[in-house]
Amino acid sequence: MKKLTLSAASLLLVTLFTSTAFALDKNTVASVNGKNISQKQYEEHLKLLSSQAPQGKQAPINRQAVLNDLINKEILLQEAKKKKLDKDNQVKVQLEKIKNNLMVQVLLSKSPAAKAITDKELQEVYDQQIGKADPTEYKARHILVKDEAKAKELIAKLNDGADFEETAKNESTGPSGKNGGDLGWFSSAQMVPAFTEATAKLMKGTHSQEPVKTRFGFHIIKLEDSRIRELPKFEEVKEQIRPVIQNQRLQEYVMQLRSKAKIEVK
Asked: Do the beta carbons of residue 179 and residue 165 sit within 8 Å?
């Protein structure tokens, strides 16, 4: 009699499970209070969770865990609607912001800025940049002071045999002063034009005979060495060029729209 009771109970569970399964159509994975969760929703959520996993640590995702997450979200959403939070002003404001941001993103994804960038375009920008690039690097020290008279005074002392490094430590107002004015190796693009031009005119081991004026003050420069650097190959930097072109396109698209807009600033 006991065995019969257990068999009946087992049969009841199977029947209940089977009836629930048959209540859902083939495109539905679960139902919460009559609201269906579709297979498409499940696949999209699975894809989202997979993309959020740390790179290199993407362990297999449990199907039931994904399903439970979707069910929990639906339960919470239904509870929020029951409390009429969809009518809440704060929620409406945030939803409006999300909608606006999404529309802008979609617009940009369909704008000229989103057009695929060809290798030819990348090559053209590379050639322009390399054509302008100065392959020379300099190793120099400098003394920075606030006024020209002080700079001329120090140049005179250096000409009389004062040590450049010690003078920089004692007199320079720049951050490199404590290191004897050492700037290490630098390219022309890393310095303001006036500084680079003055450095390029010096002979190795000599210092400038006239103060070099920049927005930082007055410099006395000593060239210690120079060398020709190898410029990067196209394949090495082409992916760094891509966002530059994309940003340029975006700016052009926005400026084009601005030119047609009536803008008033108060």
From this structure: no
